[in-house]
Amino acid sequence: MLAALARKVGAPYPTFLALGGTLLAFVPESPRWTLDPHLALTLFVAPVLVDAAYDTSLRDLRANWRPVAGLVIAAVGTTVLAVAFTARWLVPEMPWPVAIALGAIVAPPDAAAATAVMRQVKLPHKLLKILEGESLLNDASALLVYRLAIMAMLAGHLGFASFAPVFLLTVFGSLAAGVGCAYALRPLTAGLRDVPIALIVQFALTFGVWIAAEAIGLSGILTLVTYAMTVARRSGPQMPAHMRVPIFAVWETVVFVLNAFAFVLIGMQLRPIWERLEAGGARTDALVTAAVVLVVTIAARFVWVLSYHALKRRRAASAGRTPPTFGSGIVLSWAGMRGIVTLAAAFAIPETLPGGAPFPFRDLILLCAFAVVLGTLVLQGLTMAPLIRFMGLTDDDPVGREIRLGRTHAYRALLDAIKDDDTLAAKLLRKEYGAVVDLNTSQAPDAPVDEVPGGPLRRRAIAVARQRAFELRRDDVIGDDAYRVLVQELDWAELSAGGGRQD
After folding, report:
1. Burial of 310 by CB count in 10 Å (0-12 exposed, 13-18 middle, 19+ buried)?
2. 480: which DSSP letter?
3. Phi, psi values for residue 122, rounded to 5°
4. Average pLDDT, the chain
5. Is residue 445's pLDDT more than 60?
6. What is the pTM of this model?
7. Residue 88 contacts residue 94 (beta carbons within 8 Å)
8. 238-265: b or e for each residue (b if 16 or more CB lie within 10 Å)?
9. What's the confidence (pLDDT) of residue 277?
10. Whole-angstrom Cα distance, residue 41 to residue 36?
11. How far apart are CA 325 and CA 392, in angstroms?
């Protein structure tokens, strides 16, 4: 219901989920579910990362590697340090590893909400790709710091002599393991032609790669991202259409359910935290700390992004190139909404230290994490679209041009494959697909990129045919088995008519 309401008002659905989770915390007699901290990151982050990695363009990452690297390394590092120093200033008793862990938890923005808004208002393609690349890789950098900070807290001490080898082994070992798993596990998925079995294998491998990487001391995030990107680049044409459509739909649904579940679960954790803080008389101090951490988290991103943009503008001006606009820097700075990774990382903090003592300031960290998620989703999520419009940023549709180019080449190859066939079916196909080529090579400004020739007409005709099939079943002219086959056939024909998602 919340997601449907968010779509109706044009807001990112994680914003409404965060508000719903907050309200749930104060519903009388609501259940108090708990989640094993070891399960949190695996359950919530692993499928989300695989889904994002499949959609990531290596070409766009290479083209925008400088700004993406700056956001992934420098912006995350700036946020971690700023929040850690702020937490230590507000709570002097907080150990440094705990303060750094808090900074790492709130550092990685979740661009899912930002890109959901930006696709509605047609943000420039380059800015969109920078945010998508950042959202995939900043989780790895932030959670690597988080992992080392938690290790230092659990071990009691982690000096540089032991830190450097762990860091290098984790990074390079995880990258190698991800690529190796993609090649080694490919035979398990290459021959699958049954959708339920393929989905079970995909989810089993997603969790299996993560768990195996963590079990041998590697980074589950880096390993899984590398694994998923390698698999995505090598498994394109092998998957038939009857598998691709339902599999993609299931993954999209699972990611949505996990996002919703994370916000519901954190809402159920808030009330016990709220009551414990009241019992200890520390509620006001905790709220002040959470509010200050939220402000510092937002400000740290502005500091890095605007500094980087100022440097790029100066270099572009001295080289005679077109500098990036000031508006793009503001929008990129404001697109720092936090989401499921921050919640999952906060959940994953162990409840106790090795000696059995409670993990210090765990409740405060959970409160700060949810405050940052809620604050950024509400403040930035609800104002992102008006800000983009105010800055006058527009998209010149490079993806549309590439779709027309790719469609022209693909359908020309199709026509070449049947050019010597003189059957009636081949003649019909040549006429239909020749029209596709003509439409996409024309320069007509009103030629929609998401339509094939006769798309709207075909959809109207298919709707009539589907209604007739329903009437035939209703009147017992055909049975249910025949009806299902006929409707599935019409469904595939409707999908082939293009036109995007019909609301």
Report:
1. middle
2. H
3. 60, 60
4. 82
5. no
6. 0.79
7. yes
8. ebeeebeeeeeebbeebbeebbbebbeb
9. 76
10. 10
11. 10
